[in-house]
């Protein structure tokens, strides 16, 4: 168990749930994108940092600076933190679609051959 990257449920109860991997991934993305992780020396300190970071929306803001998709994923994980509910990817995919411009269809495929 890593105090920086373990999920809230893993730290609180020593158990993993279906949302644990998603929450851990968000912490790794936050760190990888330059987010500051405090020096942690206890489970209580780690839980306190998580509560503060999520309530101040530090994680969502940092990931939102990189990508609307990452922010949508962080918002979704924020709604799951510490709960053993199954993942429902449709929620954050709908949030992502709201940020994608309608006129941006990506690369056009040349079908003339």
Beta-strand residue percentage: under 5%
Q: How many beta-strand elements? A: 0
What's the mean pLDDT score? 82
Structural class of the secondary structure composition?
mainly alpha
Major beta-sheet overview: none
- How far is it from the N-terminal to the C-terminal residue, by CA? 56 Å
* Order of H and E elements: HHHHHH
Helical residue percent band = 55-70%
- Number of helices, counting only DSSP H or I runs of 4 residues or more: 6
Shape: elongated
Notes on the structure:
With 113 residues, this protein is mostly helical. It has one domain. 56% of the residues lie in helices and 0% in strands. The chain is built from 6 helices and no strands. 23% of the residues are buried.
Quick structural gist:
By secondary structure, this protein is mostly helical. It is built from six helices and no strands.
Key terms:
113 residues, 0% strand, single chain, mainly alpha
Architecture blueprint of SSEs:
Elements (H helix, E strand, L loop, with lengths): L7 H6 L6 H13 L10 H13 L2 H7 L3 H13 L8 H11 L14
Helix pairs in contact: 4-5, 5-6
């Amino acid at each position: 168990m890593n105090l920086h990257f373990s999920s809230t449920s893993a730290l609180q109860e020593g158990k993993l749930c279906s949302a644990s991997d998603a929450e851990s991934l968000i912490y790794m993305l936050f760190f990888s994108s330059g987010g500051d992780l405090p020096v942690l020396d206890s489970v209580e300190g780690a839980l306190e940092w998580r509560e503060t970071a999520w309530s101040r929306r530090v994680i969502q803001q940092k990931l939102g600076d990189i990508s609307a998709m990452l922010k949508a994923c962080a918002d979704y994980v924020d709604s799951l933190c510490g709960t053993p509910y199954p993942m429902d990817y449709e929620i954050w995919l709908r949030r992502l679609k709201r940020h994608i411009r309608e006129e941006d269809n990506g690369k056009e495929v040349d079908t003339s051959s």
